[in-house]
Amino acid sequence: MTKSMLSRTKMIIAIIAAVTVMGLSLSLSIPLVSLSLERRGYGTDIIGLMGALPALAFLIGSPVVPRLTHIFGSGKLLWAALIICSGSIFALGLNDNIYFWFFLRALIGLGMSVLFLLSETWINQVAEDNTRGRTIGIYVAFLTLGFATGPILINLLGTEGSLPFMVASAIVASAGIFFLYSGNLYPDLSGHSRFSVFTFFKIAPLICAAALLVAFFDGSVLTLLPIYGLRNGMSAEIAVLMTSTLLAGNILLQIPIGWLADRLGNELVILICGVIGVIGALLLPLLMSLPFILWPMLVIWGGAIVGTYTLALVLMGKQFTGAELVTANAATGFLWGVGSLVGPAAGGYAMKLYDPHGMPIVFAVISIAFVAIALWQKLKMRARSA
């Protein structure tokens, strides 16, 4: 292994390790805040507003990340965001004033938006074209693993006192160790972008559609699936397992999806993932009484949907570099915020209109729109090459 290959491998390991602990810390602190507020007697309106802050932070913070990167540089911005996140989570355990908590949750959301956007830019800049699909697949799989592990830690740490917040703070702070391990070779995001966060939607509609699709999936399906299970006669324990099964698919299938994309082409595989998204949503109501088919379907469905975002990141890394790459990531971060805010409301309202199958039906419609965009892009590429 040459020195440059060793350096590249070190950076990939460092970025993936850092994003895993960031996901773990965030998925630990979010339910901690909700459970703490519930225990202190706050209503679901306050808890819901607090829970919406991460999505709002992505909406507000993402468009300014490219400008901040240009002013301060990616390294300084990463460290500043890390200190803000770790310090704010730590402060949650020191004071239980509700207004202070709103301020801290906003800071955590803004800091995390910077960390995740720059990490996605960084991994794309380091990845090589011939293995980009596999590299991004590993990145997304470990990020999802971090998110899935956070709630498990709550069972070990409990929800009372300041200790859980101290642990969550220490976990996200540990990302700094991996930043140092990378050799401080932070992404080079110099230059000027020929597009802004908002004009990017016209330049890369497929990438934008994938970001919206997965954010909508997280906000609607992952949030409401346990409720959907209960309304279809499942016990609470089994209904919750449906979400865990989807997450298992997210973790297990990203690397195979990336591997396929490296061989068959990103546009074809992302289209296949979108079609599976439509089929899964339409089959869900029919399979609720057929558990031997339901559970493997959930694994494939969850993995395929998140696979669209994995491949959107791959496409992004192949098409953009430098300042344009961070602007592209900021645009998808903004769309993630939009989807995360709209998804729960749309899914919940659909279930109210058509109980209980409104949620999978509305997601099927969103998935069909994504497939149409993916097919249009593929046909457009074929026409260009003809």
List the helices and strands and how they pair.
Elements: H1 3-39, H2 44-61, H3 65-72, H4 74-92, H5 98-126, H6 132-157, H7 163-173, H8 175-181, H9 200-203, H10 205-231, H11 236-264, H12 266-287, H13 291-319, H14 322-353, H15 358-385
Helix pairs in contact: 1-2, 1-5, 1-6, 1-7, 1-8, 2-5, 2-14, 3-4, 3-14, 4-5, 4-7, 5-13, 5-14, 6-11, 6-13, 10-11, 10-13, 10-14, 10-15, 11-12, 11-13, 12-13, 12-15, 14-15
CATH superfamily of the largest domain: MFS general substrate transporter like domains
Q: How far is the first residue's CA from the last residue's CA? A: 40 Å
Average pLDDT figure: 90
CATH architecture descriptor name of the largest domain: Up-down Bundle
Helix content: over 70%
SSE order, one letter for each helix or strand = HHHHHHHHHHHHHHH
Q: Explain this structure to me?
A:
- With 386 residues, the protein is mainly α.
- It folds into two domains: 3-181, MFS general substrate transporter like domains (Growth Hormone, Chain: A, Up-down Bundle), CATH 1.20.1250; 200-385, Growth Hormone, Chain: A (Up-down Bundle), CATH 1.20.1250.
- Helix content is 84%, strand content 0%.
- It has 15 helices and no strands.
- It has helices at 3-39, 44-61, 65-72, 74-92, 98-126, 132-157, 163-173, 175-181, 200-203, 205-231, 236-264, 266-287, 291-319, 322-353, 358-385.
- Helix 1 (3-39) runs parallel beside helix 6 (132-157), helix 3 (65-72) runs antiparallel to helix 14 and helix 5 packs across helix 14 (322-353).
- The chain is globular, with a radius of gyration of 20 Å.
- The two termini are 40 Å apart.
- 51% of the residues are buried.
